[in-house]
Amino acid sequence: MFNIRLVIRILGFLLLLEGFFIFLCIPVSLIYREGVHIELGTCGLINTLAGGIMMLMTWKADRNLQSRDGFIVVSTGWLLISLFGALPFVLTGSIPSYTNAFFETVSGFTTTGATILDNIEALPKSVLFWRSLIQWLGGMGIIVMSLAIFPLLGIGGIQLFDAESPGPTVDKLHPRIKETARRLWLIYIIYTVAEIILLVAGRMDLFDSVNHTFATMATGGFSTRQLSVGYWDSPYIHYVITLFMFLAGVNFTLSYFAFHLDFKKVFQNNEFRLYFGIIAVCSIISMLVLHRTQDFSWEESFRHGTFQVVSIMTTTGFVTTDYGLWVPLLQFILVLLMFIGGSAGSTSGAIKVVRIFLFVKNGFLELRRMIHPSALIPVRMNKNVIAPEIISNVVGFIAFYLLAALIGVIAITAMGYDINSSLGAVATTLGNVGPGTGAFGPAASFNHAPALGKWIFSFLMLIGRLELFTVLILLSPGFWRK
Amino acid sequence: MRIIIGGAGDVGSHLARLLTEENHDIVLVDIVEDKLRKIGSVHDLMTIQGSVTSVSLLNDANVKKADLYIAVTGSEEVNITSGILAKKLGAKKTIIRIDNPDYLLLSCKEIFSSVGIDYMIYPEMLAANEIVGLLHQAGMTEIVEFSGGKLSMYVIRLSENAPVINKTLIEATEISKAVDFRAVAISRNTETIIPRGQDRFMANDHVYIVTNQTSVSDILRYSGIEQFDIKNIMILGGSRIAKKTAKQLGRQHNVKLIEINREKAYQLSNYLEHTLVIHGDGSSVDLLVQEGLPTMDAFVAVTGNSETNVISCMLAKQLGVKKTIAEVENVDYIKLAESMGIDAIINKKLIAANRIFRFTMSSEMSSIRRLIGTDAEVMEFVVKPGSKITAGPLKDMGFPKEAIIGGVIRGKSSFIASGNTIIKSDDRVVVFALPTAVTKMCKFFN
């Protein structure tokens, strides 16, 4: 019933690809004379060998991929690359505990940015580079990437694309999924190059620029500095990163239209308007409250407030100041934003603005439906009527999301953490943000969580990145029933 | 090629599927979201929901850059309008589906091409032609002609008393030395195989044979099929296909047509002067027997209902009708219907899609056809100078196992290919290929 051979073949290719990217870290080790190139080479070799063997074993796989296989490929694929991607941390001795290394890798690939490191600067630069690189790969999706370069899939590509980049609306930029994947990656790369140039121009050194750019575009949030972006006391750098976090949180399809000077499509997009609106309102509130409660000038209030709102809303998770010291109101707004997340079709995580839009709009229309029981009142978005099935999918998603968060909070409080810390930590991992609140706030790390807690957080990050259904469907008995 | 298909009905979605598999970039447009979702979630194509006569939608579908625009919605008027719009908005070529045979007249064609419609297809007419062709070749299930009949491919069902049954291909050639033919494929149960020398023929196999026209009657003899003339024909259902078929069969045959709707039957009787139109329910056995079904040479069931067509054909077969043809519109039923002993299956969708398919072929491929009841394709290539295939005898070429060269047309003559044949440039070559081999094989002709 399942096309196991093809599944293994694709997984093999993912490992091969991962091996290639580990090899990319070797030059970094050589340049900075860190002496870990042998260890990195070993990791790369393990990956390529494992991947190569898997591909050779399944040379004659049938090329037909059903949507069920798609779910298996994406879920196990992400698990597998995380399991193997943890090797460089362990073998170089940077993160000796495998649990910690796995947490860090999952946090990387899922573009969360939550870390167990308490002294980031102590790590070799090549390992930090790997840590940022996996965020960059996970941002646009490593499977979308393989679709763009891997010619194997004739028919199943669409299933994989849908399973890795789920969302209520599908925007294809080209009839072929492969071409769509290529265009998305191209935009991603253009933004990446642009940000590196702008950061270097702002006197950030090249290594930090590259790493921060990777983490920004993926809305990841891994920094090479313990103080995150707050290490640089430069308004220019803060504004540049704010801008690119904002862009990374916008649907990449809209960026594509913008590149083609079709701005009408961008500004008339309901999701974009709501995304911008939420950021604007929350930034202004933050600015006003910060100016009153903290010792900030107007410019500082605006800069730090906006940076933090954009960083959390796009689920990046960079910080310029410790927001754990801010008044409860602002902290709560940030936790709310962790649940909302960026736009669908962007690299951000969490529920996504488009779902919030449909959910809230449908709720309000429900009132009108009660006043006019016989009236047909459809939900509209971008002037199109949205099918009831999509609405029910959105409602189901949000219900599952909140349920997952609830169970997560129960599990974490059971380990002895207070409600504030637990809620923040679960919201931040499930939404792929990064820093949480309280004991898991930006000034602390996730290192003090017990091992079981770290595995739970890793699981939350994975299901959050793959938008619940792709993973949870594998756990439902109906999926495996003949 | 970048192709926009308007209308995700039977023809549209079938075509979209075919063309996607052939690596074309497909945009499929339909007004009904559900149809699009069904095909869009499985196949690698873009779907847009909306009306095909909307200019803004056509622009969204990037009609400017389209190499081909195909309008195959259920409505002729919509197709015409949208074809004109697409052409004026920049589509290189337009094909539309029509319902009015008059439009195919030369004078009408000029009118249409002047407003931007390049080709028109009329699936019912194509189906009727197919049926008439099959009735003229009594023993065949399907016929494909190449280069105006210099070479043909026949699909024949082996009867149980055929001389070649249980013989290997090599033994079969021994028996039938005098005949120039090549069995390029055997379809058995649900499987299609490319036979090699040691494979055996079995009863009820569908055998795909490439041959020169001259040896047809011998081949039928070896297949255990007696050739007979068809004179008395009964057509069930007064559909447009039935109307066209009856008109073409005309005076030379005795045609009886049964239609359930009185009004429709009356109109048909006005239109078809040489046909006896009977008003009655075709699913009633009594009526069919009373109208002389057992004495018929051929029975053609073309009602709108595939199940009725299949069942009534089986009934006819049981009553001793030699040739039965059923219209089966549900593609999944085709193999099933064939295995039930119906002699030939007609499928409007496949026929129309095949016809349109030809417009998308590369230049070296001059004709292509998807066969009914199998995934395989038979193609005719024009061999270009310097292509890989001309390098030596066929057996040394490493030609893919899932494909086979059936015959060669050189100038005015044609012959059957063997391992020692050397292909020359400007030859026309007939190739039978399973879907897995198509791309591999095409390389030999570039």
**Proportion in helices of chain A:** 55-70%
**pLDDT under 50 segments of chain B (min length 5)?**
none
Tally the beta strands of chain B: 22
Kindly name the structural category of chain A.
mainly alpha
How would the global form of chain B be characterised?
A: globular
Describe the structure.
The complex is a heterodimer of chains A (482) and B (446). Chain A is built from 23 helices and two strands. Chain A has helices spanning 4-23, 25-31, 37-57, 67-85, 87-91, 98-109, 125-140, 142-149, 157-164, 177-201, 206-217, 235-248, 252-259, 263-267, 270-293, 298-313, 328-340, 353-371, 388-414, 419-430, 451-465, 469-475, 477-480; strands at residues 379-381, 384-386. A two-stranded antiparallel sheet of chain A has the order 1-2. In chain A, a hairpin with a 2-residue loop joins strand 1 (379-381) and strand 2. In chain A, helix 2 (25-31) packs antiparallel against helix 3, helix 4 crosses helix 9 and helix 19 packs antiparallel against helix 21 (451-465). Chain A starts with a helix and ends with a helix. Chain B has four domains: 2-121, NAD(P)-binding Rossmann-like Domain (Rossmann fold); 129-222, Regulator of K+ conductance, C-terminal domain (Alpha-Beta Plaits), CATH 3.30.70; 232-345, NAD(P)-binding Rossmann-like Domain (Rossmann fold, 3-Layer(aba) Sandwich); 353-445, 2-Layer Sandwich (Alpha-Beta Plaits). Helices cover 31% and strands 26% of the residues of chain B. Chain B is built from 15 helices and 22 strands. The radius of gyration of chain B is 23 Å and the shape is globular. Classes of the chains: A mainly alpha (482), B alpha/beta (446). Chains A and B meet through helix 9 and helix 10 of A and strand 2 of B.
